[in-house]
Amino acid sequence: SAVISQKPSRDICQRGTSLTIQCQVDSQVTMMFWYRQQPGQSLTLIATANQGSEATYESGFVIDKFPISRPNLTFSTLTVSNMSPEDSSIYLCSVAQDPQGAREKLFFGSGTQLSVL
Amino acid sequence: AQTVTQSQPEMSVQEAETVTLSCTYDTSENNYYLFWYKQPPSRQMILVIRQEAYKQQNATENRFSVNFQKAAKSFSLKISDSQLGDTAMYFCAFMKRGNQFYFGTGTSLTVIP
Q: Are B18 and B79 in contact (CB under 8 A)?
């Protein structure tokens, strides 16, 4: 399976600041996904990040609030901008590809627990 | 639109017993994949088992097996010989072409010693 390193693992931030979450994969993958998991809730897809193009955002999420970078096939960042307490969530990076290239499995990083005061 | 429903928010089972978690889904697709993911308190989402919709045979992974009923759009997970380490949130998920995943709301499973 793909190994995904995500950092920071947790952070406590002040209202109005921004936090950038990094995601590193041990193999080249075409598509990377960013999910949000609010307390006690399921996973909601924020956006799909493809290398060399702008991320595709889901309804309710905008680039100004959640800018994403995808500089190469193994790395992506998600920034949570101008944070408010409502942004307190777990943010998860994932890829739908194993090292052999099969694209019908979803692998996750260990998540970033964000608390906004 | 695709939806995934898990009707059991919480369940418990005695250690060494068997438990079944329910999942139903709604889709107009014919080719898709179904998954069960486990999320222990560590937050790490772990793939438990995967089923390809075009395969009639139910997937099995050691103590974990599924009952896939395509016509009924049902995909339940059976955990045999439950262990304390099975305590976690379990999410049912659906994937269609294009890698779009849809997750259910989860079932919190507690294994009682």
A: yes
Q: If we measure between CA atoms, which residue out of A91, A113, A105 comes closest to residue B47?
A: A105
Of B46, B95, B103, the CB nearest to A104: B95
Dump pLDDT digits (tens) for B46-104. Answer: 999 999 998 889 999 999 999 999 999 999 999 999 999 999 999 999 988 766 788 99
Residue in chain B nearest A56 by alpha carbon? B100
Interchain pair B43, A110: CB under 8 A: yes
B103 — contact with chain A (CB < 8 Å)? yes
Q: How close are the terminal C-alpha atoms of chain B, in Å?
A: 41
Say if residues A96 and A106 touch (Cβ distance below 8 Å).
yes
- In the numeric block, the tokens 């909601």 are attached to A44
Please give the Cα distance from B8 to A112 (Å, whole number). 27
In total, the C-beta contacts within 8 angstroms joining chain A to chain B are: 48
My answer on whether omega of the bond before A8 falls inside 30° of 0, hence cis, is: yes
Model pLDDT for residues A25-57, shown as the tens digit of each residue? 998 888 899 999 998 888 999 999 988 778 999
B33 Cβ neighbours under 8 A, 6+ residues apart = A104, B50, B51, B52, B53, B94, B95
Encoding tokens for residue A22?
Answer: 């990094």
Instruction: Give the gap in angstroms from C-alpha B72 to the nearest C-alpha of chain A.
Output: 23
Residues 6+ positions from B13 with CB-CB distance below 8 Å: B19, B79, B82, B109, B110, B111, B112
